[in-house]
Fold these 4 entries.
Entry 1:
Amino acid sequence: MGVDLQTISQLRERTGAGIGDCKNALTEANGDMEKAIEVLRKKGEIKAAKKSDRATNEGLVSLAFRDDKIAGVAVACETDFVSRGEDFIMAVDGFSQKLLTSDQASFRSWAEDSIKSELVVKIGENIKLLDFGITEGGVLGSYLHANKKVAGVVSLTLGNKELASEIAMQVVAMSPRYLNPEEVPAEIVAKEKEIYEAQLKQENKPEAIWDKIIQGKLNKFFEDVCLTEQIFIKDDTKKIKDLLGGAKIKEFRKYQI
């Protein structure tokens, strides 16, 4: 049967295959687009890399749960339209479920191959595995924002799931970079002090009071970047460390598109 140029162009756009290969595949598939894609896949003619330079500013985060383990996956796509589509949602949820039963190294290889050879071809956009991870052990809590574009996961040594989930919400809202001040690299602390000294010099502050002012600025810096020092988003009279009681935060992660 004859195949029109528009259909050939659509298949080429979705697969990145050559015009001749697209025409032959459509002819073999009697004009059926999905069957033609299958033909090209079997012949190894899919070229998903064609789309790899397109911006991926949308996407979804998915969390999967089993016993004392939470798997998180963030997958990006080009448009909000695709991110709300059933095929994309099911695929991302499938990735997080797969991660629950995989080691992380093999999961990356499997997921990236699946995206390149199947998802990109099926959906027709550039799609990327942005982030993934497993949090396990201890008391686990999580928070997935309603838009499913950002999530937090927290593991505590003691406490309960509700507390861990509250702290996971804090992680989503405030994006801490470190657990506590002791984890902030010395070179970063030194750079902050250098900046504060330059500011004080510019302001002509007496050197006799520099140490006190610098410590105050450092405390504010730690309050911004360290989870335990952050003001609790639901009660500004408390810091996260005040909520813990005898518990400790073993691990926290944030997944975001």
Entry 2:
Amino acid sequence: MTPFRDARIADACAVPLSAPDDFDGWREQARRLVMADVPPDRVVWQVPGEGGDDLFAGAGGARRLPAPPPGGTPPRVPRAFLDLAAKAALHSDPQRYALLYRLLWRLQTRPGLMEDGADDDVRRLAMLARTVRRDIHKMRAFVRFRVIGDGAAERYVAWFEPEHHILRANAAFFVNRFTQMRWTILTPQGSLDWDGEVLREGPPAARGDAPAGDAAEDLWKTYYGSIFNPARLKVGAMLKEMPRRYWKNMPEAALIPDLIAGAQAREAAMVETGAALFTEARPDSLEVIAAGIAACTRCAIGCNGARAVAGEGQGDAALMIVGEQPGDSEEQAGRPFVGPAGQLLRSHLDEAGIDPRRAWLTNAVKHFKFVMRAPSKRRLHQNPSAKEIDICRWWVESERRLVRPKVVLALGASAARSVLGKTVSVQQVRGAALPLEDGAELWITTHPSYLLRLDDDARAGEEARFAADLAAVAARLAQLV
């Protein structure tokens, strides 16, 4: 240790905290330090288990905490700082309390500092808090209890390895959610034990202290396998939400590799199941299709009392436009694309030089799926499920067989699935032609309703991309017609 560093330590205030997550203790001590005018570079925070206990050994100690002057003014901070600081204090970063105090000190002369998103300390605080919130969420999502004992001795035990000091912060969540159970959560940082009335804290544990399995796991695996939806599978997004580091403590994780491997076959089976509901021959006219759609009750949407909305337009159109489903305005008018999203689409089609009157306009799902909002009784749009799209796909295929378009424009993922029979990422495939088995081309872009949900800044960029997609379709049509 250099002489300079020795002198610095001897002049520093050593501030002990009672635990790694002792935010209340930090807050009280930090308040005293600011009132005593002690700058950040003269404060060392001692956190149990993080090496701070021995920092002053052999250095002659450090000076005692100064007492605030009588009648001193307590520090003032915005609520945004306290909310972020309470989360950041749970992080495992050994410099977290020093960061909090440095920001507290700076806020006394710069009250608006928290609004400066470019400031390094403010950005670091936000990152720590965000990471802790994510770890809290992961614990709530991925704790798996296993039962031990039976009868009066029955208890549920779970093992979890948090990245940060979140155990006590999550205690209330598990007490409220599993109030009637007697449970124990074991972690390398400590343990929680709930007997149905009292929550107790315990010492750190090892993985071997938790049970390896129980009789209910096979039932849980069967259930998980049954609800695994191959049509919604996005491996990258799944791994981001459920990183592999958590898999070893989750019994259902053993099923995931096989479920992913078999997803394509299962998705094809779902599509075939939808088609199997139709035993009649393909309709021989668009009028017969419209009549059949009006009477179709093969899925729950067709039984919800809403009026079916058939396709309309030119029966031999070179362009077929497929949306997701009719909305409230379309259901009332009995025509596709007449609501706000449809008006936006028609405006962009006009700018691209595409006449919607010379196209065939239809939807992947022919009825309006909604939920009634009380007390206004307003009908709110709900996305159709993969199963509902796969059932209604028979009608879309029947329309394509009769119209025989050269280009199919799918607006959104639901529309793309109704044409392809599988789910694709719109952002990955938009702007380029995909060949179809009948010789037509499929072009995919976003649904105009997506643009309506964006704020002004985001909408401008996405609307420009949407316009570019339609311009590419218009250029391709000019080549094919």
Entry 3:
Amino acid sequence: MAERSANSETESAPESIWSRRNFFSAAGWVGLVAVFAAWTLGFVRFLFPRVLFEPKTTFRAGRPNEYARGEVSARFVADHRVWIVREGDGSFFALRAVCTHLGCTPIWFAREKKFKCPCHGSGFRPSGENFEGPAPRALERVQITLDAEGQLVVNSAVRFRRERGEWARIGARVRGSRRG
């Protein structure tokens, strides 16, 4: 009888909650939930893509009287990659601050009166013409106009290339005032 009571105790003893079967079943469910959560997170991330926010291509560059004659202004190089050049006759043009060799940003050296590309040594005159280094062509000019309030407006999306004869087109240069 003592044997019977010992067997009945072992038969009636509850099975351990973390048996091998229960452990692998729980691990499977955890893995399935993790895969579903990763998929859901990936789908939500897809709905909100990474977008590159670039500055507007059109901006106001101030009034003509803010620039001295013969000045090359580098105020807008950091934000818009554009130089504003005022010539001796009072007219303006805007140069795109991108080297035509490999796209580096040249530096304006006022003492030497030239732009110099730090990457490969291309040199450009204040007019944008290339005269040294590997750059195959002159700097591009961008559209510059005067608005109704008399402010210079630069549109870097409209470009003019010298070798195509576009520097003489309307928009590649503007007089300093509406009166001429």
Entry 4:
Amino acid sequence: MTPEDLREQTTVIAADDHPLYLKAMRETLEADPSLRLIAVAADGRRALELIMKHEPQVAVLDVRMPELDGREVVRRLRRSESRTRVLFVSEYHGGELVLQALTAGAAGFLSKAASGEEIRAAIRRIASGESVLPADVGTSLASTLRERGAAGTHLSPRELTILELMADGGSAQIIADRLHLAVPTVKTHIQNLYAKLGVNDRGAAVAEGMRRGLLS
């Protein structure tokens, strides 16, 4: 592999406290030449140490781990202003758990039933700035949020459309192409959305939009 190929690889750290699943995850990631697995960890504290040391583009974490659970790892990364984006892969994917993961700052959530290709594709999407939330998880999350009730938030029609496209996983470039807008204009709308919803990243914006009844 050339130095140029190495620079183009997406760097990843993975953590899971189940040895067999962690082994399978390692094999899944190492099978893709576009990904470079830097290290693996069996608990949340070690995962946080490795992420802070190596600063990978994406961390693939189980939600429930010893020492520190995945949500606390994400909170500490956000507080440290780490640029590593987090994908949760968990056998538990009820709406409440997904909501907690997204509001903690995760960029995506997959069930452990996801295939290797789905996990690899999600990593690439998250590294490019998108969010990942499969339909079955999204349905469960929407049900949870509807049960909580909705509070009104005034968004312009354009802002609401952009929020809906963000919920579908669209990046700023994809949204700009879809709406025939300049990318800086889309990014301005996104920042306005964040301010109105009281959040600072895409996953939290989608979760908060659903909680307030702006998304179904």
